[in-house]
Design goal:
Layout (H helix, E strand, L loop, with lengths): L1 E9 L8 H14 L16 E3 L8 E11 L5 H9 L6 E8 L7 H4 E10 L4 H13 L4 E6 L2 E6 L4 E10 L2 E11 L2 E2 L2 H7 L8 E9 L2 H4 L1
Parallel strand pairs: 3-11
Antiparallel strand pairs: 1-3, 1-4, 2-3, 5-9, 5-11, 6-7, 8-9, 9-10
Length: 218
């Protein structure tokens, strides 16, 4: 069995497609491309496809990661070229590499997600001061409203770093490295609210997913 790790792009055209619909999109593309997928065992076999982390609606990305298991070995180049021909506008494979089948799941290796967040800005010095003040905090009690009711947690523990990428007329672009693992995931719009910005960011782009290396996991 072969295991390929895929890095793919999600553009503006599909940024409002749900996580389940993205999985269905990939399954259809693999079927049309005649990719020999490996299947799980049991009464209800399903293709062995694993995405590292769901992407919230409205966010674009050049850093989505997915592991695909194949029953027959293919070259990463052939896989990329063949599947890309079957994908709709807004999604494309940027890289495919072979990884050992026995290493931990991609979800268990995930540690952080990095984002570029575009915001309206009042003054550069105000933004810089807000970032410094937030990063100096040891705790930041926060509440997020869910369908089941309010969820209380420490937002500061989900923030690894925040930095200014650029100031520009009418706005700024921030970088954020937020925790993204099985203990919790930071959300860029909540961080911008904690910084004092009102309203949703102009745009959010996931630029990188940070994995724990296999050597560290031994």
């Amino acid at each position: 069995m072969q295991r390929l790790r895929i890095r793919f792009r999600r553009g503006e055209e599909i940024k409002f497609i749900s996580h389940l619909d993205i999985i269905r999109l990939w399954q259809r593309a693999f079927t049309r491309a005649n990719i020999p997928l490996a299947y799980s065992e049991g009464f209800n076999p399903h293709p062995r496809i694993s995405l590292a982390a769901p992407l919230a609606l409205g966010i674009t990305s050049d850093a989505e990661l997915m592991d695909v298991y194949l029953s027959k070995e293919l070259s990463p180049h052939f896989f990329t070229t063949t599947v890309n021909r079957q994908l709709p506008a807004g999604v494309s494979i940027l890289q495919a590499i072979q990884v050992p089948s026995h290493i931990p799941t991609i979800q268990s290796q995930l540690r952080y997600a990095e984002y570029e967040v575009f915001l309206n800005e009042t003054a550069p010095e105000t933004t810089e001061a807000a970032i410094s003040a937030l990063l100096e905090l040891e705790t930041l009690p926060w509440q997020h409203q869910r369908d089941t009711g309010p969820h209380h947690y420490d937002l500061r523990q989900l923030i690894d770093d925040i930095w200014v990428i650029e100031h520009r007329p009418g706005g700024c672009r921030l970088g954020m490295r937020l925790r993204c693992d099985n203990t919790g995931s930071g959300r860029p719009e909540q961080v911008t609210a904690a910084l004092g910005f009102t309203g949703y960011p102009q745009a959010v782009h996931r630029s990188r997913l940070v994995l724990k290396t296999y050597r560290d996991s031994n």
